[in-house]
């Protein structure tokens, strides 16, 4: 499973300046993430986990340090290269789904497959994500929160990305729906070999991961390795 | 200042770009209103005051030779305040600095200098003194064109005799505010020359007689009965029919200008206010949607619905007042400039600027009303929003599949295009108004710039298709047809054709017009008749040919019979069939075959003018010959005048085009910029999400700006159509008996209008595009709308 690191993070710091206030979101983070790993990032708000994921996903840049995606240093990329990197390699799942309201479920997926290099069929992606076939032609406003999140997952995996970055994917959902979303993520990781990083506040979710990275005050506090990954269904919160 | 007012000020500052765009559209409307009404009133007041101070006459009449005692009979007509008899003739002027001959309009002034009517405003020097027949006063524009001052001299062929004249004064007259030599204005080529009555009477054998009379009416006296009575009195003396100010060239031309200004104040401001109202509606409904929670909070802490509504209304009123302030300032400034420009063009001795307070009040009222109406719907919704509902996020937008998903090709379209389509369809009214707004800016351009096409067409038809002669030599009196050969023999004359003019009165039932019948030879090649399709009409041997404008006035058609009262020689009244209708954009016209006209007058072959084409290389010799030909009463140089007119047009062109392009640009910019900003506010989160998913800036921009590209392109044909309608009503509104604009719009005008609007839209899109480029990708992941 661990066929070399997909991400290598070396001494990354991130400083935000808003007016006169300086916030050090990351203070020298060093980690490696292996291809095909299922990683859960845990930590209180403001501990830096989202900042790291944003930098890994090419949405934000590091103030200091280097991030390598395989052998490429993405910390040196400009906007155009970052856009291409996101387009070709990264799938995102957001807390609030961020679907296009004017497109149906299937069309939201097609939106991404149209610009991807070797995408899967949008219907297939939605089925892997667990959206029933009879819901494929519904608009987001006609779907429940869990269904919308599954569309978002379908949209994220349809281009067969190497990495799936999920920021609080279950944050807006009840536990039953949340578990079904986590099952979908686990299935993608297992069947497609996609590296998955999940940010969460929920300690229990950590039990389904290969590794759990704990964040505190902008640094990696500790890394937990699970002997055995539990099935999402057995996780309760 | 209350806290809410402070919020209002900050909202204004935050939304400054959109506020400015709306305020500018309003300002454009207010500006055109203030400008047009201000200039119109100033000119009108100036003209009225000028007429009043200089006792401009109400009725004018000419005769061949009427005894001076007739003046008492005319004065005795009930309703007449004062009468002045005069001598009016034409002359050829020979001026040292000018190769070509100029035309002179000779007008007598009483020997004692006591003018009763049409008094001169002396600008330099004095009136001619009694006993000095060679002393003259000339009109100021003519003097300026030649640099004449008192003491300068010029020669004139007066009734066949060459005379040296000395300028003793330069003057302006209410009678000659605007004078044109050959249908086209040229101050160099037309001089008004005032001479003493005795001198002119001696030159034209009119001792104890007059050939022109002006009459001032008592206040409230209708002109018609007086005109009839004057006609009756002058008839035995060759009276050619009296007319009121409406048929006086200078007055009628000024009237046309005033009408044009008035039309501008009716047409343009409503367009701008309509667009501004729509923009206010758009921006306010978005602002209120964004501030839903704040509205809920305001209500929760005890503000009333009316209080909330008033808060937003104030924002709108402030925007309107900003627009009004800019508009009034610009309109007043430009209005003065325009009045001064008119003043220079028309040569008034003074200018009266009218600050029209009522227009300012109207401007403020209609602007605030337009803005308020535009805001009404969203403000009412805000007032009605229950606080608990307001604090919850709004219901998600509902989208429909285009055409119910029934069209298979839609599934083949890229999803970004589907997004654009669904956004347009989801808010059909907003999309429609956006397109209509853009279309109006196209229409403003087409509807105003068409006049350039129309004038060009008018010149082309009149001077290059119909009246193809280079010059027309008119004789003092009618001459035997042999005179044609004399003209043909002049140096530089390449071709010559005779013409005969007879004053007449045309009647169909109660409808009546006074004008000359022009006799032309059948198959004439220089002065031709054209039908409405610009095809040449062969002069019929029988009957009379009328221009469309005359036929319309007399409500008569081809094949019908018209009554013509000949006002020269035997003064017979005859019935003639209308044998053809021809097109002409300048004046009214009636034509007959020249021999038929001579037969009608029971005369042998006679001519009163000759049309010629000239050889440019011998033009100096020709001019020299004409200046010394006693039989010549006047000469018109059509080609020279057209060239001069084009020159003047070109000078004004840049300014006119700049103003209309700016006005249209403001509309297009205002509509597209505001629309795109609001769309960005609504779709910003969506677009940022797409950027996260790997869409490039260009791809994301297209989703938003593509919608406006489609709405703009869709607006073009509508704009052309609306512009055609505006051009049509402009042409109709400006049509007078003196001249009409042909409704001609060149393709290039449509094209230019479209280009201007496309560029303005593209510019506003580019500005919004910069904001799309700066979308915050991280923020979007953390928040929900």
Quick gist of this model?
With 237 residues, chain A is an alpha/beta fold. Chain A has six helices and ten strands, in the order βββαββαβαααβαβββ. In chain A, the strands form two sheets. A six-stranded mixed sheet of chain A has the order 6-7-8-3-9-10, with helices on both faces.
Can you walk me through this structure?
The complex is a heterodimer of chains A (237) and B (785). Chain A is of the alpha/beta class and 237 residues long. Chain A is 28% helix and 29% strand. In chain A, strands 6-7-8-3-9-10 form a 6-stranded mixed sheet, with helices on both faces. In chain A, strands 2-1-4-5 form a 4-stranded antiparallel sheet, covered by helices on one side. In chain A, a hairpin with a 2-residue loop joins strand 9 and strand 10 (219-225). With 785 residues, chain B is of the alpha+beta class. Chain B folds into 4 domains: 1-57 and 252-395, no CATH class; 89-204, no CATH class; 427-465 and 639-785, no CATH class; 471-636, no CATH class. Chain B is built from 21 helices and 22 strands. Chain B has a 6-stranded mixed beta barrel. Chain B has a 6-stranded mixed β-barrel with strand order 13-14-20-17-19-18. A 4-stranded antiparallel sheet of chain B has the order 2-10-1-11. In chain B, a hairpin with a 2-residue loop joins strand 13 (493-508) and strand 14. In chain B, helix 2 runs antiparallel to helix 10 (357-384), helix 7 (249-290) runs parallel beside helix 18 (638-692) and helix 13 (428-466) runs antiparallel to helix 20 (747-773). Classes of the chains: A alpha/beta (237), B alpha+beta (785).
């Amino acid at each position: 499973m661990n066929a070399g690191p997909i991400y290598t993070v070396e001494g990354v710091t991130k400083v935000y300046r808003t007016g006169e206030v300086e916030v050090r979101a990351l203070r020298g983070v060093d980690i490696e993430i292996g291809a095909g790993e299922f990683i859960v990032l845990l930590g209180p708000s403001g501990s830096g986990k989202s900042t790291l994921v944003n930098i890994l996903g090419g949405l934000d840049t590091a103030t200091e340090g280097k991030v390598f995606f395989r052998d490429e240093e993405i910390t040196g990329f400009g906007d155009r290269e970052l856009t291409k990197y996101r387009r070709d390699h990264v799938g995102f799942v957001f807390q609030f789904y961020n679907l296009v309201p004017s497109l149906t479920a299937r069309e939201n997926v097609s939106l991404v497959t149209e610009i991807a290099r070797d995408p899967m069929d949008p219907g297939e992606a939605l089925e892997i994500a667990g959206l029933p076939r009879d819901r494929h032609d519904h608009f987001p406003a006609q779907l429940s929160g869990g269904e919308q999140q599954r569309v978002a997952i379908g949209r994220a995996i349809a281009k067969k990305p190497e990495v799936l970055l999920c920021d609080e994917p279950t944050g807006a959902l009840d536990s039953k729906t949340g578990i079904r979303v986590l099952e979908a993520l686990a299935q993608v990781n297992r069947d497609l070999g996609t590296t998955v990083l999940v940010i969460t506040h929920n300690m229990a979710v950590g039990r389904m991961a290969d590794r759990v990275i704990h964040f505190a005050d902008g640094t990696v506090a500790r890394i937990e390795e699970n002997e055995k990954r539990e099935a999402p269904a057995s996780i309760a919160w | 200042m209350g806290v809410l007012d402070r919020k209002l000020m900050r909202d204004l500052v935050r939304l400054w770009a959109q506020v400015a765009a709306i305020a500018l559209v309003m300002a454009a409307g207010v500006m055109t209103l203030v400008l047009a009404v201000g200039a119109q009133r100033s000119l009108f007041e100036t003209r009225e005051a000028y007429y009043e101070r200089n006792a401009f006459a109400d009725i004018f009449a000419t005769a061949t030779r009427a005894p001076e005692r007739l003046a008492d009979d005319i004065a005795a007509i009930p309703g007449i305040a004062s009468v002045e008899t005069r001598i009016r003739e034409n002359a050829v002027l020979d001026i040292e600095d000018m190769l070509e001959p100029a035309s002179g309009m000779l007008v007598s002034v009483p020997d004692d200098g006591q003018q009763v009517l049409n008094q001169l405003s002396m600008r330099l020097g004095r009136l001619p003194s009694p006993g000095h027949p060679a002393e003259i006063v000339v009109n100021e524009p003519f003097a300026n064109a030649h640099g004449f001052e008192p003491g300068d001299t010029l020669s004139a062929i007066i009734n066949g005799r060459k005379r040296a004249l000395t300028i003793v004064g330069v003057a302006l007259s209410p009678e000659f505010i605007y004078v044109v030599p050959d249908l086209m204005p040229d101050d160099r080529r037309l001089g008004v020359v005032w001479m003493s009555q005795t001198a002119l009477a001696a030159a034209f054998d009119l001792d104890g007689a007059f050939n022109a009379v002006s009459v001032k009416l008592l206040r409230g006296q209708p002109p018609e009965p007086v005109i009839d009575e004057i006609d009756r009195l002058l008839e035995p003396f060759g009276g050619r029919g009296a007319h009121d100010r409406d048929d006086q060239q200078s007055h009628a031309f000024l009237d046309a200008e005033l009408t044009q200004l008035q039309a501008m104040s009716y047409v343009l401001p409503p367009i701008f206010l309509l667009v501004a109202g729509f923009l206010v509606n758009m921006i306010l409904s978005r602002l209120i949607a964004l501030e839903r929670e704040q509205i809920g909070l305001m209500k929760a802490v005890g503000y009333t619905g009316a209080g909330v509504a008033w808060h937003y209304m104030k924002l709108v009123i402030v925007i309107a007042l900003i627009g009004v302030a800019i508009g009034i300032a610009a309109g007043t400034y430009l209005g003065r400039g325009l009045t001064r420009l008119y003043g220079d063009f028309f040569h008034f001795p003074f200018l009266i600027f009218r600050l029209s307070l009522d227009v300012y009040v109207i401007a403020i009222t209609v602007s605030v009303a337009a803005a308020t109406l535009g805001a009404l719907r969203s403000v009412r919704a805000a007032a009605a929003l229950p606080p608990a509902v307001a604090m919850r996020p709004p219901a998600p937008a509902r989208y429909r599949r285009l055409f119910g998903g029934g069209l298979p090709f839609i599934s083949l379209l890229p999803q970004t295009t589907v997004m654009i389509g669904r956004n347009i369809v989801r808010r059909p009214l907003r999309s429609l108004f956006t397109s209509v707004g853009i279309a109006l800016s196209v229409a403003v351009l087409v509807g105003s710039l068409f006049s350039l096409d129309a004038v060009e067409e008018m010149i082309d038809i009149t001077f290059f298709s119909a009246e193809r002669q280079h010059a027309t030599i008119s004789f003092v009196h009618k001459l035997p047809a042999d005179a044609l050969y004399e003209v043909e023999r002049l140096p530089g004359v390449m071709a010559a054709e005779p013409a005969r003019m007879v004053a007449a009165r045309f009647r169909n039932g109660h409808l009546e017009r006074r004008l000359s019948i022009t006799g032309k030879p059948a198959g004439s090649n220089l002065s031709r008749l054209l039908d409405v399709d610009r095809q040449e009409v062969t002069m019929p041997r029988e009957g009379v040919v009328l221009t469309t404008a005359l036929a319309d006035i007399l409500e008569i058609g081809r094949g019908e019979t018209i009554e013509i009262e000949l006002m020269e020689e035997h003064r017979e009244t005859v019935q003639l069939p209308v044998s053809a209708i021809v097109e002409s954009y300048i004046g009214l016209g009636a034509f007959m075959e020249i021999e038929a006209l001579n037969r009608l007058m029971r005369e042998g072959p006679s001519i009163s003018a000759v049309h010629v084409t000239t050889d440019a290389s011998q033009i100096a010799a020709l001019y020299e010959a004409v200046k010394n030909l006693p039989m010549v009463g006047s000469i018109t140089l059509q080609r020279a005048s057209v060239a001069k007119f084009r020159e003047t047009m070109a000078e004004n062109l840049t300014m006119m085009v700049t103003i209309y392009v700016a006005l249209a640009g403001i509309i297009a910019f205002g509509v597209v910029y505001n629309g795109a900003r609001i769309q960005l506010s609504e779709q910003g989160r969506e677009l940022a999400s797409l950027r996260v998913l790997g869409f490039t800036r260009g791809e994301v921009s297209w989703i938003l700006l593509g919608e406006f590209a489609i709405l703009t392109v869709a607006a073009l044909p509508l704009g052309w159509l609306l512009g055609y309608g505006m051009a049509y009503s402009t042409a109709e509104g400006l049509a007078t008996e003196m001249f009409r604009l042909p409704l001609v719009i060149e393709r290039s005008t449509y094209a230019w209008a479209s280009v201007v609007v496309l560029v303005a839209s593209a510019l506003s899109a580019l500005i919004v595009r910069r904001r799309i480029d700066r979308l915050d990708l991280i923020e979007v992941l953390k928040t929900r709308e």
